[in-house]
Design a protein that fits this description.
Blueprint: E1 4-9, H1 30-37, H2 44-49, H3 51-59, E2 77-82, H4 91-98, H5 119-129, E3 135-139, H6 142-156, E4 160-163, E5 168-174, H7 175-193, E6 201-208, E7 216-217, E8 222-225, H8 233-239, E9 243-247, H9 250-253, E10 261-263, H10 268-281, E11 286-292, H11 294-300, H12 305-318, E12 331-335, E13 354-359, E14 366-371, H13 376-384
Parallel strand pairs: 1-11, 1-12, 2-14, 3-4, 5-6, 9-10, 9-11
Antiparallel strand pairs: 2-13, 4-5, 6-7, 6-8, 12-13
Length: 399
C-alpha cells in the first residue's frame, strides 16, 4: 500500500452550491469569477487533471480560461465536484467533513453588530489576562482592522478583538510591542472562556510593523480549535499505526487530534517545498495533508483577484514536481474547504461546491460527477487503506 496526499486549496470554490441563496451567496464562484477577471489564466496542469470540466459541471458554465500551455503533469485522474452537508461555510466544518464527519449541528456565532462580544465575556477575559481593555469588538477584515487600530494598540497595549462570518473570535496583537507568547496566552484564556458560546475557534493574529502604512501579519498565526466530536479519518488512521503528517494549519484545525507529525509552514512556496519533502520521506501507509492557506487568507479575504490568479498559476506550476516523488500506488487529492470569491461583496467565505480531483500513476481516469458530501474523500481514503467506513460519504476509489 502506498501513501495518500491531500492538497487542500483553502477557499478554492467552483460555484454551483444548490443552497447558496440560503447563505446570501447566490452567484458566488471563486474559480469562475477569477478566470473571468483574468483572461489568460494559465493553469494547464489543473486543467489536464479535470478542474475546468469539474467546474463546468458544478455550475453549468465553463470557466473563461482560454488556451492553456502544454501540461507538464500527465498522470491519469478522476475529477468531480462536491457539495457540502455541513451547516456552515467555514474552515473547521469543511475540513472535518472531508475527514469524514459533517458538522450537522449549529456553531455559535458572534453578531456583526458592534459590539460583537458580550460584556461579561470580555470582562472575564481581561480580568484573567491582566489587560485593561480591548480594541475593535466588531466584525471586520483582519488586515483592515489592524491598519485602523494597530497604532492605537501599540500606544495602549490593548489587543484587537474581532470576528467574521465564521464561528470565531480573532485577536490581533503586535509581536514586538505586545509579545507573541503573551498573545498566545491570551488566546488560550479566550478559548476557555468562549466554550459556553459554542465557538469553533479562537485565532491568534500576530503582526509586525511600525505604522498603519507597513503593518503586516506574520506566519505565527495559531488557531485554538474545539476537538472533533467524533473520530475523523486522521484519528482512525493513527489508531491503526499509520503516519498522519499535517502541514500548515491542519493540526490546529483538528486540535492536534489524529496527528503523528506536525510540520509548520507558511506561504505557498514553503508549503510546497515541505509537502514534497514529506511525500519523499514518509513511509507507506501515510497520509500527508497540506492546507494552502494563502488562497483564503492573503487573496480571498482581501479581495485580491489578481493576486489569487497569480497564486493559482504558482500552485499549478509546482504540480509537476509531485510526479517525481510519487510511488506507484500513491494517490493525490486536490480539493477545497469552501469558497471565498474575491469578486463577491464583503470579505467573507462563500458557499460553493468544491473540486474533487484524484490522481496517481495507477488511477483509472473517470468523471466521478456530483458528490453529495465532502466526506466522499474520507470514504475513498478509508477504502484505500482498508479501514472501517464512515457513516457519511461514498467512496469513488474504484469508480
Amino acid at each position: 500500500m502506498g501513501k495518500a496526499i491531500i492538497l487542500m486549496m483553502d477557499s478554492f470554490g467552483i460555484g454551483g452550491a444548490p443552497d447558496a441563496a440560503q447563505y446570501n451567496d447566490k452567484g458566488a464562484n471563486t474559480f469562475g469569477n477569477i478566470a473571468k477577471a483574468n483572461l489568460g489564466l494559465n493553469i494547464p496542469n489543473l486543467v489536464k487533471l479535470g478542474l475546468a470540466k469539474a467546474a463546468e459541471n458544478a455550475c453549468g458554465q465553463a470557466p473563461q480560461i482560454g488556451i492553456q500551455d502544454i501540461a507538464q503533469l500527465s498522470l491519469p485522474s478522476k475529477y468531480g465536484h462536491a457539495k457540502e452537508l455541513s451547516r456552515a461555510k467555514d474552515t473547521t466544518s469543511g475540513h472535518w467533513e472531508m475527514a469524514g464527519i459533517p458538522v450537522l449541528q449549529e456553531w455559535g456565532y458572534f453578531p456583526k453588530s458592534e459590539p460583537s462580544f458580550p460584556h461579561e465575556l470580555i470582562s472575564s477575559i481581561c480580568q484573567r489576562a491582566g489587560i485593561s481593555g480591548i480594541l475593535g469588538n466588531r466584525a471586520a477584515s483582519g488586515t483592515k482592522i489592524i491598519e485602523e487600530l494597530g497604532e492605537t494598540h501599540i500606544k495602549t497595549g490593548m489587543p484587537i478583538f474581532y470576528t467574521s462570518v465564521d464561528s470565531c473570535l480573532q485577536i490581533a496583537a503586535h509581536e514586538k510591542y505586545f509579545g507573541l507568547q503573551k498573545l498566545y496566552d491570551l488566546c488560550q484564556i479566550a478559548f476557555e472562556e468562549v466554550r459556553p458560546y459554542k465557538i469553533a475557534r479562537v485565532i491568534a493574529r500576530p503582526f509586525i510593523g511600525e505604522s498603519s502604512t507597513d503593518f503586516v501579519r506574520t506566519g505565527n498565526r495559531h488557531d485554538y480549535s474545539v476537538a472533533p466530536f467524533a473520530p475523523t479519518l486522521l484519528d482512525k488512521l493513527k489508531a491503526r499505526k499509520h503516519s498522519v503528517i499535517a502541514l500548515g494549519k491542519i493540526s490546529d484545525i483538528f486540535a492536534g487530534q489524529g496527528i503523528s507529525k506536525k510540520v509548520p509552514a507558511s506561504g505557498l512556496e514553503e508549503l510546497w517545498n515541505k509537502t514534497l519533502q514529506e511525500i519523499s520521506a514518509a513511509p507507506d501507509n501515510s497520509l500527508i495533508f497540506t492546507n494552502f492557506v494563502d488562497f483564503d487568507m492573503v487573496y480571498g479575504h482581501r479581495r485580491d483577484v489578481k493576486g489569487y490568479a497569480r497564486a493559482l498559476e504558482y500552485f499549478d506550476k509546482r504540480l509537476p514536481e509531485i510526479a517525481g516523488v510519487l510511488q506507484a500506488d500513491d494517490i493525490v487529492f486536490i480539493t477545497a474547504d469552501h469558497g471565498n470569491d474575491p469578486t463577491y461583496t464583503g470579505t467573507d467565505h462563500t458557499r460553493e461546491q468544491v473540486p474533487v480531483i484524484m490522481f496517481g500513476k495507477h488511477v483509472k481516469p473517470a468523471d466521478i460527477g456530483q458528490r453529495q458530501t465532502f466526506a466522499d474523500i474520507a470514504q475513498t481514503i478509508a477504502e484505500y487503506f482498508n479501514i472501517e467506513p464512515f457513516e457519511y460519504g461514498t467512496s469513488f476509489l474504484k469508480d
